[in-house]
Amino acid sequence: MKKFFAALLLTALFASSSFAAGHKVGMLAKLCMNAADFASNVKYQYFSLENLSAPEFKYYDSINAMQLALSAGEIDEIALPEVVSNYLMAADHDYLINCVVIMRSNPLAFAFGFKSDNEGLRDEFNKALAEIKRDGTLITLQAQFLTPKDSMMEIPAPVHFTKFDGARTIKAAITGDLPPIDFAAPDGKPDGFNVALLAEVARRLKFNVEILNIESGSRAAALSSGRADVVFWFEIYRGLATQPDVPDGVILSEPYYNFDTIYHLKLAR
Questions:
Q1: Which of 71, 79, 85, 129 has a CA-to-CA distance to 181 between 20 and 30 Å?
Q2: 171 vs 187, higher pLDDT
Q3: Which one of 1-15, 46-60, 129-143, 231-245 scores highest in mean pLDDT?
Q4: Spatial distance between the Cα atoms of 211 and 188, rounded to a whole number of angstroms
Q5: CA distance 89 to 78
Q6: What's the predicted TM-score (pTM) here?
Q7: CA 115 to chain centre
Q8: Are 252 and 236 a contacting pair, CB within 8 Å?
Q9: Are 182 and 228 in contact (CB under 8 A)?
Q10: pLDDT at 240
């Protein structure tokens, strides 16, 4: 599978006519920029080929809404991280790679998000994350949840959280919009890489976890309202002064998963 995707990567990078005029690409909504602002501020980092015309972006609050728009022909393709695209293609062979974009100068990252006045909890998470990185647990979780197995993208059994009698409870929100990274099983049980990492952080810090399901566009509101104490945060553009997806009132942990490859998927019609 790795050789297969490597071949597609090289083909897509050297395709000079990937986008026609009026081409529409769906992506998850940003919290600080509308689609037009994102295109004008980030397109030169996002599209690395000089002869690649920037498409029109359309924002969606969930991956399900984005997939429905693609099926209905409202957009031409959807933009997702490489590992998420691999998961969708393994599950549905109608998805095809149309373009691959490499974010060499501004790689993307995942982190935990907190309300800005909750620096103490952020610092606790950073301490646990440093230990998880140092002892190799992070690499083990990435291999377990994010590495394709032959021609399939398998997600292990639902993650179980250790229960601590009398310990504090942290409310964590997931969107389920980026399987197998941020994922909720059909029965609603939390699963995937982010959830497994959260379970490991909770075990080391000895707190209990209550999981909430929210839409991507509600992440900041969940924190500001106190509904959630921590939210999985996607798309930190490392090196950019203005962050398209980190509003005022939100602070982030140290990043724990970096990536620089975005696949644009279309449907075989």
A1: 71
A2: 171
A3: 129-143
A4: 10
A5: 12
A6: 0.83
A7: 19
A8: yes
A9: no
A10: 67
Q: Which position has the token pair 């602070």? A: 251
Contact assessment for residue 215 and residue 121, using Cβ atoms and an 8 Å cutoff: no
| CA distance readout (Å), 155 to 48, 128, 141 | 32, 24, 11
In the chain, the N- to C-terminal Cα span, in Å, equals: 23
Instruction: Summarize the confidence of residues 129-150 as an average pLDDT.
Output: 89
Backbone torsions φ then ψ of 217, nearest 5 degrees: -70, -10
Kindly give, in sequence order, each residue whose CB lies less than 8 Å from that of residue 163, ignoring residues fewer than 6 positions away.
Answer: 208
How many other β-carbons are positioned within 10 Å of the β-carbon of residue 195?
A: 26
- Close Cβ partners of 236 (under 8 Å, ≥ 6 residues apart): 108, 109, 110, 111, 243, 245, 246, 252, 255
Average pLDDT, the chain: 82
Cα–Cα–Cα angle for 137, 140, 143, rounded to 5 degrees: 150
pLDDT of 39 higher than 80: no
CB 15 within 8 A of CB 47: no
Q: DSSP per residue over 45-111, as a string? A: HH---TT----EEEEESSHHHHHHHHHTTSSSEEEEEHHHHHHHHHH-TTEEEEEEEE-SSS-EEEE
pLDDT at 131: 98
